Amino acid sequence: MVDYIFVSVFILLQVVLIIQLYFITIVHGRLRAYKITEPAEQTTLPVSVIICARNEEKNLEKNLSLILEQDYPDFEVVVVNDCSSDDSEMLLRGFSSRYPHLKVVTLTEHARFKHGKKFAVTIGVKAAKNEHLLFTDADCRPASPNWIRRMQAQYTPGISIVLGYSPYENRGGFLNAFIRYESFSTALNYLSFALAGNPYMGVGRNLSYTKSLFFKAKGFASHMHILSGDDDLFVNENATSANTGIEVHPDSHVWSEPKTSWSSLWRQKVRHMGAGKAYKARDKRILSLQTGSSVLFYVLLGAMAALQAQWWIVPAVYLIRLIIQIVVYYPAMKKLNCKNVIWWFPLLDLFFNTFISILALVASFRKKVQWK
């Protein structure tokens, strides 16, 4: 009986390893092999940058000028001041007096109608005067004055969505390393799948799409009841292999401030997990297979050790996957500005799979989420 269990577990482990190696080498290998090229010609498409901000006075004071002073010939910045109770309105008036291309839209709290970020984004899109829209958040800063130029350079004929990348700043410590690794893993996945012809999400900290696509899709109408997902659900619903491009040049990155506590990170990830439930069925199946096989890999390794497999089997199987991961992921980490997390990689990968397993379990029972 014990031999039967051992053989069954070992066969299942090999199947899981093959599935994992498919995602690592075939899918993620696409970003590893992706060549960052210079655009054939400088783009000058008029752009509207949209930022939705609720009680973001300090972040706006620190980051807004970096966006308003981008090296680009034709752009406006639309800030939706969403029911802020701090001094954001006064701060934005000061910015408006210095920057004529800043447009401020102020929303006020309704006694009975409580809205989420999707409503604020919709108002920002309607206020924008240009066809090409570029989204970021108030706590984000562009890596260079060429952020707009780089993102818009991907609008070749047929493209109506451009997926960008937003790394988190390096603050030291395990929490920060985990946040940066999680952000890398997310980006590695959605950028690689986009390159493979199956774009399924993007992040609103650095995302661009056209105004006509937004209205053609009726905005967020199909998922307005879900408070999160103004970025990934819109991409999941509207992105195709033909209309989606990616931009990962270092000048196009938008740096974000990381969470500083496990509790705030947990709340953020539970909110994001809630949006994932509304993905297309095909995408949910693929992502479930990918995540499930990754978690099961560690579970089966533990089972093999508990069943007293020969001493070399468990480390050999583990090292096969680990070495291939490092070969594929390190070049991708260099592209995505987080190569130093490679030193934490074995621990982070195990912790990441444990974290998302618990997160998925908790999120499946949690119904209510909020933006801010």
UniProtKB/TrEMBL annotation:
UniProt domain Glycosyltransferase 2-like: residue ranges: 48-175
Transmembrane parts of this sequence: 6-27, 286-306, 312-330, 342-365
GO molecular function, one term: glycosyltransferase activity
Keywords attached to this entry: Glycosyltransferase, Membrane, Transferase, Transmembrane, Transmembrane helix
Superkingdom assignment: Bacteria
Annotated InterPro entries: Glyco_trans_2-like (IPR001173), Nucleotide-diphossugar_trans (IPR029044)
SUPFAM superfamilies: Nucleotide-diphospho-sugar transferases
Family that this chain belongs to: Belongs to the glycosyltransferase 2 family.
Protein name as catalogued: Cellulose synthase/poly-beta-1,6-N-acetylglucosamine synthase-like glycosyltransferase
The species this protein was found in: Arcticibacter pallidicorallinus
Lineage, highest ranks first: Bacteria, Pseudomonadati, Bacteroidota, Sphingobacteriia, Sphingobacteriales
